[in-house]
Amino acid sequence: MKILIIGWEVASAEPWLDAEPERLTNLRWLMEIGCYGRFENSTESAGVVAQTIGDQLANAGKRVRVIGAALATGRNQDEEMQQSRQRFAEARNLLPTAEWDCGVILERAPGSLSKIGNATSDSSADALRGYAERFDIELSELLAVGDDDTAIVIVSSGGAQSNFILAAPRCPLHGEIEGAQPMDLAPTLLELGGWSVPAALPGKSLIAGRLSSPTEETGYTDEEETLVRERLAGLGYI
User: Fold this and answer.
1) Deepest in the core among 25, 62, 130, 153, taking most CB within 10 A?
2) In sequence order, which residues have a C-beta less than 8 Å from that of residue 15 and are 6 or more positions away?
């Protein structure tokens, strides 16, 4: 199994929860086939959380690639949007060719759209929705690079709250999860991948003792296979 982690710093910590059903199709699809929730008692930025998970996996012997480690501030919002597109393009070009177990992408909304409290006016709210929809398109193109044996983690932060989405083959967790801590994701991902979890690794696996057998052909459980097929049918792919 490969692991793709996206640390997403954006003014609203939960853009996928606030969006209308027809918006952010790919984020909602990941929520439907996986799980999501708010981290308990965590105020760390999405970038810090994503990098920490990557460091923990690296310390466990996994090959980790980080994209966007140096998040430079552009001269204006248009330049920062271009930098965002370049980060996703780099990920799409690198991940299919490089040897890696975990890819970490650090993404930040341009300018004021990355700061809580600055998306309150109608124009700013519209700009935030537009950026979130573009992020969703970039996510779709990134998912097309992966395969059925790739786990996806998206961490979003804004203000005093950080949220996450986890979608992975063989993962028994579905729907909203309560009480999760950022440090719980690394041991969870290692267990999902069938790797040993170092005793010194902080946190606890969210799936301890709950793994079910995958189907041979896709790597998904029967329930996940049904959800995926229903979603693809709804999008007109099958």
Assistant:
1) 153
2) 24, 27, 128, 129, 132, 156
With respect to residue 94, please indicate whether it lies within any of the assigned structural domains: yes
Name the residue range of residue 25's domain.
2-211
| Assigned domain for 219 exists | no
Handedness of CA 8, 14, 19, 25 (dihedral sign): positive
3-state secondary structure 122-166: HHHHHHHHHHHHHHHHHHHHHHCCCCCCEEEEEEEEECCEEEEEE
Which position has the token pair 């932060």? 157
The gap between the terminal CA atoms of the chain, to the nearest Å, is: 25
Domains identified in the chain, total number: 1
Residue 235 lies inside a defined structural domain of this protein: no
Rounded distance, CA 223 to CA 214, Å?
A: 10
Which pLDDT does position 110 carry in this prediction?
A: 75
Is residue 161 situated within a structural domain?
yes
Give the whole-angstrom CA distance, residue 219 versus residue 209: 18
Q: 44 exposed, middle or buried (CB, 10 Å; 0-12, 13-18, 19+)? A: middle
Query: In whole angstroms, what is the distance from residue 231 CA to residue 32 CA?
Result: 9
pLDDT value, residue 144: 86
Which CATH number is 134's domain given? 3.40.720.10
- DSSP bridge partners of 102: 3, 64
